Each structure stands twice: as C-alpha cells, then as structure tokens.
Amino acid sequence: MMKPGARGAPKRSSYNTFITIVCFSIGLLGGYLILGSPRTADHIVAVKTDAGLSHRGSFAHESTKRVWGTRRELLTPRKATAGGSSSLIGRLGASGGLPLNTALGEKPPAQGEVSKEMAAALKQQQSDTSERVAPAKGDVVKEMATALKQQQSDKSETVVQAKAGDTKEKEALMKAQQSDTSERKTGSAETNAREEQAKTAVTGGAATTAAKTATTTAAANTTTAAASTTTTATPTTAAATVSSTAAAAVSPSPSPSPPPPATSVKGVFPDANTWPITPVKEKMPGNTIHTLFTSNGSPYQNIQARIMVGTYNMVRKMPGGERLVALTRILHRTTPDEVMDEIPTFLAQPLQPECDKWCWFPVADRANAFQQWINAAEKDPSLIKAPWLLLLETDYVWVRPLPDPGDAYDRAIPGWSFGFDYIAPSIPIIMQLLKERCPDCDPKQVPNSGPAPVLARFSDFKAATPIWEELSKWIETHEEAKKMLGWVREMYAWDIGVAANKLNIKNVGPPSSPLISQPPHDRVLGNASMYHYTWGTIYKKPGVEKEIWMFDKRTYTAYEHQLKLPAIPMPPVWTDDIVLQDNLKVTKELHDTVVDMISHMNQAIAELPDLTDKVNKQKEAAAAAAATAAAGATKAT
Fold this sequence. Notes:
Elements: H1 14-35, H2 40-51, H3 71-75, H4 88-91, H5 121-124, H6 140-151, H7 164-177, H8 188-200, H9 210-227, E1 231-232, H10 238-247, E2 289-295, H11 299-315, E3 324-332, E4 345-348, H12 366-379, E5 388-392, E6 396-398, E7 415-418, H13 428-437, E8 454-457, H14 458-476, H15 479-485, H16 489-500, E9 505-508, E10 516-517, E11 530-532, E12 537-539, E13 549-551, H17 559-563, H18 588-607, H19 612-636
Parallel strand pairs: 1-4, 2-3, 2-5, 3-4, 7-9, 10-11
Antiparallel strand pairs: 5-8, 6-11, 7-8, 12-13
Pfam families: HPAT
Subcellular location: Membrane
Keywords: Glycosyltransferase, Membrane, Transferase, Transmembrane, Transmembrane helix
C-alpha cells in the first residue's frame, strides 16, 4: 500500500506520444515516396505506351528498331507480345496501331515496331491523303458487341416458313436443274485431276464434248448480246433486302450440339447449301462463267474498268474463252455515266449519292448494290447467264481464261476465293462479330479473303450477301470499327457472311490460286488468270532520290483519260541494281512479271475506242433538250 503523500510512477506525457506518431507517419510516407507504390511500374509502362501512339497510329518505342527484310514479312501478322498494357491496344491484344505501308513508298517508323494484324493493307488501297487517327480509349470490343446487339434487336426473328406451294416449286426447280447431273464420282484419281486443273490455270474446265462446246459457244454469243441491255434496279432498304432473302429460305433445322437456340440468327441460313443453284429453270452449261464487277462510275474507276473489260474481251478469243459467256458491271450511281454504252451495265441505286462526284469510301455501297442485283435476278432470272458467277473489281488485268472448278451443278465441287495475307480474321473485333453471328463457328474457318475475286454459285452469293451488306453498313456507322479495320473493312464483312453460312468456297493464296497475282507483292503470275494492280510499283536505284520509273493506279484520275486512255509507260530495261520503293531488289523474274502486266494493259488500251466526240455530242444533245424543255415551260406559264 502506498504511503500517504508518496508519488507513484511518472505518467507518460501525451505530448511525447503525439510526437512519436507524427515521426512514424512521416517516415512511412517518405519510404512510400522513395521506394514507390507496388503499381508505380505498371502505371509508368501504361502511360508511356499511351503516350507512344503517334498521330499516324504507330508505336514509338525508344529502344527497339525494326528492320524489314521482305514485303511478305511486313504483311505477316505477328503474335501479340507477352505482357499487358493498360492502353486500348494492349487490352485488344494488339502490339500497336496501324503502320505505314512501305509498298506505297512509305518507310516504317524510324523507331518502333508496326502493328501486327492490319499492317500494309489499310493504306495500300487508298490515296496518301487518307488520315489515320489512333483509337480512343475504352473497351471497344465490348462497346461494339453491345451496339451490335442493340442494332440487331430483331436478330431472334425466326426465318419465315415457306408455303407449301413454294416448297413444291422449289423442289421442282432443283429437280429440273439437276435431272441430268452425273453421279458424284469418288477416288483419288479424280481428286488429283481437279487439283492439277486448278494448278495449270490455262484453259481449264471439265472435259466437254464437241457438241457441248458448240452449245457453250452459241450461248456465249446469245448472252453477250443480251447483256448489252442496261438494267435498272429499284431502290431497296436494308430491312427489305434482308427480309426478302430470309423469306426465300426454309426454316433452319436445330443443331444437335451445342443445344439449339429457340430462334435463328438473321443472315444465317443453315439450309443455304441445299438452295437451288440458280433461279434459272433451264439448265445452263455447268462449266460456264458470268463475270460481274462493281463500280461507282468515277473517272478513276472507269479508267480501270475499260482496261479490265478490254483484256477480258482479249482472253475470250483464246482457247477456253468460250466459257466466259457474259460480263456485267453493277453501277451504284444515281445517273448513267460515260461508258454505259460500252460496258453492259446494271444500274443500282447508291447509298451515297454524293459518290457520283466524290466521297471518301465508295466501296461502302458495293454490298448493297450487289444485293440489289440479286433481288432483280430472282425476279428476272434472264439476268443470270451462267451457273458460275465471278465477282471482280475494276483494277484487274486478264491474261488468260479462268479455268472452271468443274460442273457447278455438282455441289461437291467448291468455288474459289483468294487468300489475302493482309486480311487477318483473328483480330478481336472480327472474332466478336463472328461470335454474334455464328456462336458455333470455328474462327479458324473464317477465310482471309474478300468479295473479290470470288467464283461461286448464285446460291452462295445469295446466302453470304445479307451479312456482307448489313455488317458493311454497321461498320460505316461506328467510327471505332472504321478506324480498326481501315480501307479493307467490307472485306471482313464478306468473310463473316461466308463463314456463318458455311459455304463451300475454297480459299487459295498465291502462287497456287487460279484467280489473281498482285505484283510487285507477288513476283510471278503463277497459276493466276489475272493481275491485280492494287500495289504501286516504283523503280529506284541506290543513292538516287528520284525514281527511274513508276506505275500507280492512283495517278490516273483525269476525266479526259476515261474517254481516251493514254498508254502506260513501259518499265526500263532491267539491271541488277534496280530496287523497289521499299528497297527490295527487283529480280529479273519480277521485272518480267511487271512488263507482262503493263503490256497486256497497253494492248487493251490500243484497241479501245476514243469516246471523246461521242460523249461531247451526247452532252450537247442533252443540253439542247433541256433548253427546249425550259422554253416550253416558260411559254406554258
């Protein structure tokens, strides 16, 4: 017990306690600032990544310099690098933005790796004035998926069941078309023969008797004359287009695995491979081909179209050319153009009337214009001249007749498409759109092709075009999708339409493809029947700044040139020190390929008539008629 008056243990001062707490807090804060947050490193990486996006959309890493060895390497998509970035590109699994295209004379960034998926393609098909903008931040894939679901609120709509009478008529049509179809043959011998046929790509086609050849030749003469008549389509909306196509299909049968949904997906037709090959009731020769291409009638495309049609007429005179029975231009334009009288034309109503004069992306109208032709052909089957349809673009040069794959009425024989190595269906946005359209589709089965060149049956185009059309429109109304997919965006829309409907179209790249070769990217013609000059070709010599020769389609845009085409300057004599714009060596083999393409183009140009006087007289007559009508209206008032 403590004695009275004694002092106990001294009490700890509250002031000392306060000082201790303050010192501890300051020390803790100082250590945090000096040593850094556990997330500081990640944050710095993310900021540097975002800040590294240049105005042209490529990354500018300071420590890496990429040297490209070949153009093929530049175009080959690379796998995403390990590790993550908090930027948009990192979340989408890409390694960067959109690079420049060395095939147009542009050099890769002095510092940095270019993007993986769409390198080289996005700029190759546009003028150098096209602006590239880096994608905005945000989870774009999820946003696009949500927007697509909202836009397709009616995607659960069931496919209309055909009436009993229509079903009988359909069965009768198929029976009439295939009444004399030969029994499907099996065995490796026939398979090897067909593969060899595709490889030769000179005259090609299934073996035919003399009588059958005579019939085909007669059909060519008849259909060519018939094709000279211009056809006009009535305007159709996207909804009407898709609905009319869906109404022609039979309700899809449920798929056993995975469990079938209660409703169908719009634009997907499980029975598409059982549709009639063509609405034409009379069976046509199964190895004949009807060529089609789209255009907006601008001087730029008319110059290319006249050359393409000129070379087409040249190869029709070669052995095997009798199978090319007709050619039709699908013109998406509000008024006729200057070459209507020269090229057989189907006039479709454009989605972008301003493209009659100028617009950024006239290709956006292509799918809708082709859907208008399909609708018109179902109403008037005489528009279809052959069971095989070949869809092209204007910038093609025919070299020899395209071999047919075989009898179009034999469903076991696949059509053909071309594999572009700058189309990468594995990019996230395409994977998401495919998932929306075809949840059970294997992404590996999506072709890296596009709507041209494609050789397929009418039924194939009828099945693939609704998705091609709708997704093309969807992409055009979503800026992020346009930025990601660039100037080849409608090609991806076609690929999804083909994959979702599981169409029997074989995708083959160069040099095995019987369709096209693309110099200078492709150094030889290979098995191809046509050249595609989407790439510019510039000859240079080391140490010399100015090119010694060039050909680029983008330099041929003058109005007067569509009426009287100028001859294209030929390349100079080859020497072993010539290089391309990207410093790749011009081999003798590549030089001979370029010379061959330009020679065929100039041969066609020499045979084309000068339309200047004819067009001027047409304009004068139209002006006089308008003046007369105006004078009559004035008197009437």
